[in-house]
């Protein structure tokens, strides 16, 4: 995983509430066990018409959305069924963080385990972001703060362990592998005691 320390980006705004995992990545694209290529199917039913042509009225098809790494979404983002493909598709597209007033628990867990930062903000901050699509914002992960233009940085909740994993660019398995020698030594002490 790519470490996240300071993330500066323009935002893409999808203000709809209750964007579920089937809207993020429709079930018909879940036939793969790899992450590669899922970004092209991100929000597929919204991005493409029935013939597969990009819809000009969908934000991800606009020039302003290119190279944006932060998605701002309506409340209850990522609800629905549990599927790791949802954060995989967001990451493969190029997003590194999702900001919302509410992020579904299972999606949040899958996001953190796969290197996508879920940022929960208050309603006033979300309103500002909705009213300023494309705003350049900055996320400082070591301090868990979000800076909006012309405003004081805001803190957002994030468990210390999850933050450490994202800052260091490792997942839970990588964390354990890094401690293999310590785990082995502990196990040897337990068997000789």
Brief account:
The protein is 34% helix and 16% strand. By secondary structure, the protein is an alpha/beta fold.
Order of helices and strands: EHHEHEHEHEEEHHH
Percent strand? 15-25%
**Portion of residues within helices:** 25-40%
Cα-to-Cα separation, first versus last residue: 38 Å
The CATH H-level homologous superfamily: Aconitase, domain 4
Estimate the global geometry from the Cα principal axes: globular
CATH topology: Aconitase, domain 4
CATH architectural name = Alpha-Beta Barrel
What's the number of structural domains?
1
Rg, please? Answer: 18 Å
Quaternary structure type: single chain
**Structural class based on helices, strands and sheet pairing:** alpha/beta
Strand order of the largest sheet: 4-3-2-1-5-6-7
Low-confidence stretches: none
How many beta-strand elements?
7
Determine the mean pLDDT. Answer: 94
CATH C-level category: Alpha Beta
**Could you give a short account of the major beta sheet?**
7 strands, mixed
Count of DSSP-assigned helices: 8
Textual characterization of the structure:
With 193 residues, the chain is of the alpha/beta class. The chain has one domain: Aconitase, domain 4, CATH 3.20.19. It is 34% helix and 16% strand. The chain contains 8 helices and 7 strands; from the N terminus they run E-H-H-E-H-E-H-E-H-E-E-E-H-H-H. It has helices spanning 21-24, 44-47, 85-93, 105-114, 123-131, 160-168, 172-178, 180-192; strands at 6-14, 70-73, 97-100, 117-120, 136-140, 145-147, 154-155. The protein has a 7-stranded mixed β-sheet with strand order 4-3-2-1-5-6-7. The protein is globular and about 65 Å long. The model has no long low-confidence stretch (mean pLDDT 94).
């Amino acid at each position: 995983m790519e470490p996240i320390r300071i993330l500066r980006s323009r935002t893409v705004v999808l203000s709809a509430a209750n964007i579920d995992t089937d809207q993020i990545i429709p079930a018909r694209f879940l036939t793969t066990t790899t992450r590669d290529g899922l970004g092209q199917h991100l929000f597929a039913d919204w991005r493409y018409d029935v013939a597969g042509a990009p819809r000009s009225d969908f934000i991800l098809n606009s020039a302003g959305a290119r190279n944006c790494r932060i998605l701002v979404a309506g409340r209850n983002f990522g609800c629905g069924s549990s599927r790791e493909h949802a954060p995989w598709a967001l990451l493969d597209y190029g997003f590194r963080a999702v900001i919302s007033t509410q992020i579904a628990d299972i999606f949040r867990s899958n996001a953190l385990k796969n290197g996508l930062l879920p940022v929960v903000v208050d309603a006033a901050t979300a309103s500002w972001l909705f009213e300023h699509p494309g705003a350049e914002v900055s996320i400082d992960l070591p301090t868990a703060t979000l800076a909006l233009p012309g405003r004081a940085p805001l803190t957002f909740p994030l468990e210390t362990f999850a933050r450490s994993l994202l800052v260091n660019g490792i997942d839970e398995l990588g964390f354990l592998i890094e401690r293999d020698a310590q785990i082995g030594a502990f196990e040897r002490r337990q068997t000789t005691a």
